[in-house]
Write a structure and sequence with these properties.
elongated; mainly alpha
Length: 92
């Protein structure tokens, strides 16, 4: 019975990772294909971050290192330099 449970956990993690890839690709396309003001970009990225961290609650650091930077870099290529409010909060 434990083998089935472990398999299910890996399957669930695999499904979540596939969702993350598809979702992040959609986010990139949305950023590239739409115009944003700085305020709209900030709200958009805060919502994206919330949605991703709902699925991966313990992975905020990894989100910032990989996806947060990726999305901000795409915005910067469009001339929108986004610094999220959370970026300014010192972490211990």
């Amino acid at each position: 019975m434990k083998d089935i449970t472990m398999k299910d956990e890996y399957l669930s993690e695999d499904i979540k990772m596939k969702w993350l890839k598809i979702y992040s690709d959609k986010v990139v396309k949305h950023i590239m294909n739409n115009d944003f003001t700085e305020a709209e970009a900030i709200l958009f990225l805060e919502n994206v971050k919330k949605k991703i961290l709902n699925k991966f609650p313990e992975k905020e650091k990894q989100y910032e290192l990989i996806y947060g930077r990726r999305f901000k870099r795409i915005f910067s290529k469009k001339g929108i330099f986004v610094e999220l409010y959370q970026d300014k909060i010192p972490r211990n």
